[in-house]
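Appendix B. Worked example

We walk through a single record from start to finish. Start with the input: the chain for Guanidinium exporter, Stenotrophomonas tumulicola, length 106.
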Amino acid sequence: MPWIYLLLAGLFEIGFAIGMKYSNGFSKPLPTIATIVAALISLYLMGQAMKSIPVGTAYAIWTGIGALGVTLLGIFLFNDSASPARLACVALIVTGVIGLKLVSSP
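Next comes the structure step. The output line below is what the pipeline stores for this chain.
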């Protein structure tokens, strides 16, 4: 269950990062509220996951999920760069996240 919490926390992290973009510096009420709610849910789930998963592992995986998701959504939603070098760097993050999961218990 802690890994599911961590996965969900990462997904909500993606939501609050993308929400910040849509909130336009927290100047638009609905995206701002959605961003704050997503952040609170993400942090709650992260706290639940860290009851069993080491803090360094949990944090690295949480940020890795967020980095991958926000990068991909940035490419599709905001026309961010999809250069081979950028995608290779994201692939390194994904490799690290998978490696941490494989060497971590619970």
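Two observations about the output. The chain has four helices and no strands. Residues 31 and 88 are 31 Å apart (CA to CA).
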